[in-house]
Amino acid sequence: MENERTLVLIKPDAMVKGLAGSIIYDLQSLNLKMIGLKLVKVKKELAEKHYEKHKSKPFFNKLIKHLMGQLHENENVISIVYKGENAIQKIRNAAGKTHPEEADFKSL
């Protein structure tokens, strides 16, 4: 099993809903080590770089606005780096493939 690092972004929609604390608490059950945490306001250039692989897709601009907080009137994003065995897959399983509403921490 590989020791990996992975990035978790608690995006503006979750921040507006007051879910940041619950998300961080739930991620503790994954037995990963949090090695970095920062509150950021994502600039357009960084958002475009983060979602570069989606640039040609019709939803790209909405994705950028979402990450920048323009769709939720909240610019705050919590950026967390976790480290541990199979960290990437553990986070993907917890968060769901695309939509956070599909997350299922009970199965972890």
Largest sheet: 3 strands, antiparallel
The geometry reads as globular
Strand content: 25-35%
Between the first and last Cα atoms, what is the distance in angstroms?
Answer: 18 Å
Could you tell me the number of beta strands? Answer: 3
Can you describe this structure?
The chain is 35% helix and 25% strand. With 108 residues, it is α+β, with helices and mostly antiparallel strands. It has a three-stranded antiparallel beta sheet with strand order 1-3-2. The longest helix is centred in the middle third of the chain and has 9 residues, at 60-68. It starts with a strand and ends in a 13-residue tail after the last helix. The model has no long low-confidence stretch (mean pLDDT 89).
Write a concise synopsis of the structure shown.
The chain contains five helices and three strands; from the N terminus they run E-H-H-E-H-H-E-H.
Please specify the SSE layout and strand pairing.
Blueprint: E1 3-10, H1 12-16, H2 20-27, E2 33-41, H3 44-50, H4 60-68, E3 76-85, H5 87-95
Antiparallel strand pairs: 1-3, 2-3
Features:
about 110 residues; about 25% strand
